[in-house]
UniProtKB/TrEMBL annotation:
Residues 178-205 form a coiled coil. Putative transcription activator involved in regulating light control of development. Pfam families: SWIM. The keyword Lipoprotein does not apply. GO terms for molecular function: zinc ion binding. GO terms for cellular component: nucleus. One of its GO terms (biological process) is regulation of DNA-templated transcription. It is found in: Nucleus. The keyword Nucleus applies. Residues 89-127 form the SWIM-type domain. Belongs to the FHY3/FAR1 family. This is Protein FAR1-RELATED SEQUENCE.
Amino acid sequence: MNSTQIKEVKVCNSLRRNELEEDFNSRRKSPVTCIPRLPLLKTAAESYTGRMYKELEAEFKEQFSFSCNLLQTERSILTYMVTHMYSDYGAIVTFNKADVPITCACRKYESIGILCKHAFKVFNVNNVFNLPPKYILHRWTKYTKRGFYIEKQGSEMESLQTHAARISRKVTSVALKCSLSKELLDDLEKAIDKLDSEGDNSLSKMQEQSNEVPLVSTDYTTDTLKGTISFRVPEVVKGAKNKRGSISFGKDKGKKKKKKSDKKKALVLTLQCYTLQLMPMGNLGPWLLR
């Protein structure tokens, strides 16, 4: 590895380390809000990571330098023009009082994933002090790495295979999280072994009650790095032996292979010529008469 590659590896390791530390700090404590008793900021601080909460709080603070003017009212849908105090240009915000959906012309929520200062201003004018759950994207929350997120688990029931895959990803995430300490890894391994034994007992009881429940193999290799993964490899169907290797590359098809008898005749003629060269001239008579 050259010096540039070594620097790249160091930078990547530093970024991963900083990310792990930031995730740990976000889960350990919530940031201090600028308005302590406001439910909107409290919900955001409990849900978002520290960095994303700072972004949202900055947008929330900027709303106080904006003015809000009502342009149109159509049943429960209100249209506002939100402008800065030192500018005549602003953003048009549409707000529905019925189910609290809000859209802004700046498209900050659609592009980044957090509400903008214009939306917060309209919320403040309409006395909306709670952050709607629909505007909390799961990818910016503290626990986004725990596994797959299912928004409508009640209506869209997941299969057992999907449920098992989600739990497997969650366990892998916990193992990587505990990789910083040997004690945490030992405790995690003990807990997994305990759950494994309890699962075997439950499966055996289910097998006794009903023969329809299939037995699950619990064989595993202790060496996870060198252990083999039990995925079936599809069988390879081989062709006939006489057809394999019959393709010729750059060979003339018209040429025939020499027979062994031809090789023997050529060898005999070569030996005879060599013998004639070694014999004296007087003894060549019998050979020439043959």
